[in-house]
Amino acid sequence: TRKTPDLVQVCYGGVFAASVKSIYRQDSKVWKRIEDLLTRGNNIEEGHFVERSWAHLLAKPLEPFQVKALRNVSTGLIMQEAGVLGALGDELCGGCWKGDRYLGMLPRKRAQRRKIHVMVSYCKAPLDWLKQYLHGFNIASIHIVSICGVDVEGAPASAEIELLPNVGPPDHAYAHYITTILPRKLGANEDDDSVVAFMKDDVNEEDLRQSGLSAKDVKVIDLESMISVASSSNGFGCALVPLGTPIDSISAYHDKEVLFQFETGAIKEGSKSHRNKTDSAEFKLTHKNLGAFFESLNVTRKTPDLVQVCYGGVFAATVRSIYRQDAAVWRRMEDLLAIRGSDNVERHLFAERSWAHLLAKPLEPRHVRAMRKYATGSLNQTEGMAGVLHKTQLEEYKRLAAIEYRRWAKKQRNKPVRYKGADYR
């Protein structure tokens, strides 16, 4: 009989606490009616209905001003047939500005129990670290592809090792794994939610940041966190996530129009510094820009105006996310990346910027609008992090600058002045 407001709390999981006063605030006939409804059976629809009713039966109703404030903060409702139907969404789709938090993420400990297939692209660094790195995880398989024509050192005993001709970057080995190896690794009844972790032989932060990113721009998350993010509604997790500062922060998402203008012209053709260490061929350009490369993949699925980018070449994706793309796309990528030395650097840079929006769940239009509203701009350039969204807190910058100026001025006032060997203040 008690009136409930337009916004109500929901407690999932069936574990909660309430004061005796809150319990007896409801008429006893309500509790008796719930008891009668639930006696019909064990796993019944009434159980799901009641789970979503406990909180707003027991919790203090929101005041009208609180309802108004919540609607102002929210950008809409989650409209789906099951699960968290009707939940208010925040401005950034669950917190995806940095690409490290999405709806449906597994707790870190549960992420360890998710079935994981590990794929390692190997060139020169010993893999003695890999066994300990994977310790405690539910590892279904380990597949190591040597791409530099050398024997693999330090591989776990359970790993399957494959030697590929020295024709392409790590991305070629990834595409080869998807088209050729993964289908036979999966069991007949393999769960689509099992995860594939794509790694290089060196996953230290300095190696992953060689795309020109500094330590203040990004950080490396651990395997547990990466699997947790990949197990979310996004279906993809990157080992490098943006950091930013209180003044200026960057996003994992990029303006597609600007991003697709990314070109490798800044890398001088024939540059020795960008040759494969085991290859003498010079670097040359065969695609005008990233957009031309992406178009050559013949992707039929429409991508939104904002897309995720994962720098560093270490990431995880669910099997469902991988097979969401047409198999022809992965075969085309494998063919494009199977180029011996001459322009594999160019195609590696293009592929690096393509994996996330090929594998991650596309943003919904309302999320794109919210991200653009939150950001203060995008990096309008044709190299580096072309198109990355950023948010500059101008007022915060002015505040911190004023603090720094006052500190400097105070030091200047207290600084002694030397004149003919004597100190004057």
What is the fold's blueprint, element by element?
Layout: H1 20-23, H2 28-37, H3 45-51, H4 54-58, H5 64-73, E1 76-77, E2 88-89, H6 108-113, E3 116-122, H7 130-133, E4 139-146, E5 160-163, H8 170-185, E6 195-200, H9 205-208, E7 218-220, H10 223-230, E8 236-238, E9 240-242, E10 248-255, H11 256-259, H12 290-296, E11 306-308, E12 315-318, H13 319-324, H14 327-337, H15 344-352, H16 355-359, H17 365-374, E13 377-378, E14 388-392, H18 394-414, E15 417-419, E16 422-424
Parallel strand pairs: 3-4, 3-6, 4-5
Antiparallel strand pairs: 1-2, 6-12, 7-9, 8-12, 10-11, 10-14, 13-14, 15-16
Helix pairs in contact: 8-14
Commentary on this structure:
The protein is built from 18 helices and 16 strands. A hairpin with a 2-residue loop joins strand 15 and strand 16. It is globular and about 75 Å long. The protein is an alpha+beta fold and 425 residues long. About 7% of the residues have low confidence.
